[in-house]
Every structure is written in C-alpha cells, then in structure tokens.
Design brief:
This protein has eight helices and seven strands, in the order H-H-H-H-E-H-E-H-E-E-H-E-H-E-E. It has a seven-stranded mixed sheet, with helices on both faces. Strand 1, helix 5 and strand 2 form a beta-alpha-beta unit. Helix 2 packs antiparallel against helix 6. The longest helix is centred in the N-terminal third of the chain and has 21 residues. It is globular, with a radius of gyration of 18 Å.
Length: 229
C-alpha cells in the first residue's frame, strides 16, 4: 500500500496536456452548438457548466479529504470501491493513487467518460432510479460511496421529477449494503437542500443519523453494512 499523498503528488499523476486538450475541445464543441443553434438544448446541462469540472486541483483536494475520512490513506490492504454518481471519476483517481481500485457509475455523459479515460478510471454509464436495484455486476465491494450526489434531487436531469422520499432512500441503502463484502461500509455525502439542511424531508436526515457509525459536522455519513441489512 502507498502512504498518504499530497494534493500535488496526486495532481502530477494526471497527464496535464491531455486534460487541457479535452477542456479546449469541450469548449469548442459547446461554442459550435451555441453559434449554430442558440436554443439547442441537446447538450447535457452538466457540460454547459463544464469549466468547473476541469479545476483538477480543487477537486483532488476535495476528494482527498473524503478518502482520508474513510482512512483510505492508511489502509493496510487495497480496498475495492463503487462510486455511485462518480462524475468524472476524480475521487476514484485519488483512491487509485492511494493504492485502491474501483469503478464509477454516472449518467451517460461523453465529457465525463472522456475525463475518466484520462484519469484511468473505470466508468459505467447508468442511472440511479428510485426502487430499482443497481446492475448485478456491482457486487463485492469494501466501500460504496455517493459523494455530492444529485440523483435524488429535483435539479438533476428532469426538473419536474419528484425528489426522493424516505422509502426511496431506505431502498437505496439496502440495495447498496447487499453489494458490500462482510465488514463493508457506505460513505454518503448528500448535497445540501438549502443552507444547513440536507434534505427537504428531515426524516431522511434522521435515517442516516440513526444508521451511521460516524457523522461529520459537514454532512458525511459512514454507515456499516450491517446497520441497514
């Protein structure tokens, strides 16, 4: 296993030329769409806000904090991780730099997939759907993570969608727990619904608080597999 690494060490492991070339290509592609059809909405709205996703140093710093909260920087053996809502895969790249392995699942975004390829991260396109289990291929993990997720929120994809309620969250947690190895854990970092409020329904927050073995002031929950089975 590798020892803890600095942000700079992890940043240096990414091919900067390829990363910047992709950023320029995405910018060019978007400009072509705007010029040819200003009302075109075919481009994924995540990609319309593309620039922040290329701020690699900021995101490595952000995700290294999560890896350290999970003790991945000091683990005595490699861990296998499923990152649900992985985005471009920067968290998994941090995990890989620390000596672990994993796979990510997120929307079918060409930008995300190309970013993950540069980062050397396995990326599986797919949606997290209420009351539907994840694909059967996703089993045998030591950690399942869901960091800064939006698949449970109204502002993801379909703005008219109903936000997840308590039962949707219970199903999701149970389904994930069934995919963990014995002793495995979930790491959940919801997006805030509004300032200092994790969810529109406080019962969801209470659920996470009740099953978590660790809860941070900034809204991270570490949940043992056995707590939700």
């Amino acid at each position: 296993m590798k020892n803890d690494l600095s942000v700079e060490e992890i940043l240096s492991s990414v091919n900067d030329a390829d990363w910047r070339s992709l950023e320029q290509q995405i910018a060019s592609d978007l400009q072509d769409v705007i010029v040819s059809d200003p009302k075109n909405r075919a481009m994924d709205r995540l990609e319309k806000n593309y620039s922040k996703y290329f701020d690699l140093e900021t995101w490595i710093r952000y995700h290294l904090r999560h890896a350290r909260l999970m003790d991945l920087h000091s683990s005595n053996r490699p861990r296998r991780i499923l990152d649900v809502g992985c985005g471009s895969g920067i968290f998994l790249h941090v995990c890989k730099a620390l000596g672990h392995a994993g796979v990510g699942i997120d929307v079918n975004s060409d930008m995300y997939q190309r970013m993950a390829e540069i980062l050397g991260v396995e990326y599986v396109p797919g949606l997290v759907v209420p009351f539907e289990p994840l694909d059967e291929r996703f089993r045998g993990f030591d950690w399942i993570t869901a960091i800064a997720i939006k698949f449970d929120r109204r502002d993801f994809a379909n703005r008219d969608a109903t936000p997840w309620a308590l039962e949707e969250w219970k199903f999701f947690l149970r389904d994930c727990a069934q995919r963990l190895n014995e002793g495995g854990k979930l790491y959940i970092k919801p997006n805030f619904f509004k300032l200092n409020t994790l969810f529109e329904d406080p019962a969801i927050t209470r659920l996470l608080e009740n099953v978590a073995s660790v809860q941070t002031p900034t809204g991270e929950f570490i949940i043992p597999r056995e707590a939700v089975l």
